[in-house]
Design a protein that fits this description.
- With 278 residues, the chain is of the alpha+beta class.
- It has 8 helices and 14 strands.
- 31% of the residues lie in helices and 29% in strands.
């Protein structure tokens, strides 16, 4: 029996986006149950990347549940309603109260409450008594409410406006969820915390494949063919290549991530999109 295998683990994120992990597993991990294989794939990736993997899953979740019909929003505070520096509980409570008002409003209107993903960015109290930044909320919100309705709901219990609402339709032609979620979870110079509404669909992770790739083939693909769109699009029909990322650990183990989009959506690299030639 081989001492190692190369695992291919796909993540299908809705109709237009997919990622493929390629990494080494042991013979014991290869013979594990399907459920255990998925757990191992997750744990191995988390051990290696921790916070980066959390941000990556956040992006996958956005692609799985939202489209360019939805909203990218920043909720801010005015001077009278800005919580004290370091009062994270108050900031989280403000978002919870907004969600409750939104549910009540949608129930009266006879529609389902919108799905959402939210990142709270906090104003931090420093050791010297100064503060850094201002509290605000970055949100991806399902587009069933209008901007006027969203602004109307960002109020306190007495009906006073809490702050400004900066709201734009998500644009997947000139940008991407990688760019949006990357901005929402950017470098942690300050404390952040993310939450999500109930009922969001998780990315689909088909049964892992441990026999499609060999170590030699993976190394060749991750070096010689790393920028070869035709090579990867032949491997994964129906998708166009966005980019390939690969890292080698100190122990010499390679982990490659292939990022793909549906062929009928666009063809490009990173956040630059070009229409396919006919």
């Amino acid at each position: 029996m081989k001492a190692w295998y190369i695992r291919e683990q796909k993540h299908i994120c809705g109709p237009q986006y997919a990622e493929v992990d390629l990494f080494e597993v042991s013979a014991k991990e290869h013979t594990a149950s399907t459920r255990r294989k998925r757990e191992l794939a997750t744990s191995i990736a988390q051990q290696r990347y921790n916070e980066a993997m959390s941000r990556r899953y956040f992006c996958q979740l956005a692609y799985t549940n939202f489209t360019d019909r939805d909203w990218a929003i920043t909720f801010t505070y005015n001077r009278d309603h800005h919580p004290a520096a370091g009062d994270y509980d108050r900031v989280d409570r403000d978002w919870t109260n907004f969600c409750k008002r939104m549910k009540r409003y949608c129930k009266k209107k006879g529609i389902s409450a919108p799905k959402w993903m939210q990142v709270a960015e906090y104003c931090v109290l420093n050791e010297d008594g100064t503060s850094t930044g201002r509290h605000h909320h970055h949100v991806i919100l399902e587009g069933s409410l209008t901007l006027d309705e969203i602004e109307m709901l960002w109020r306190d219990s007495s009906g006073e406006e809490i702050g400004m609402v900066h709201c734009d339709r998500i644009n997947l032609t000139s940008s991407s969820f990688e760019a949006l979620t990357g901005y929402m979870t950017k470098a942690r110079t300050r404390v952040r915390h993310w939450r999500q509404s109930r009922g969001l669909k998780a990315p689909v992770t088909p049964r892992p494949n441990d026999t499609k790739w060999s170590r030699k083939k993976l190394e060749e693909a991750s070096t010689v063919y790393i920028d070869d769109a035709a090579f990867w699009e032949q491997k994964y029909p129906g998708y166009t290549l966005n980019r390939v990322e690969t890292k080698v650990s100190n122990a010499g183990q390679r982990h490659t991530v292939v990022i793909l989009r549906r062929a009928e959506c666009w063809h490009g690299r990173g956040n630059i999109y070009r229409p396919r030639r006919k």
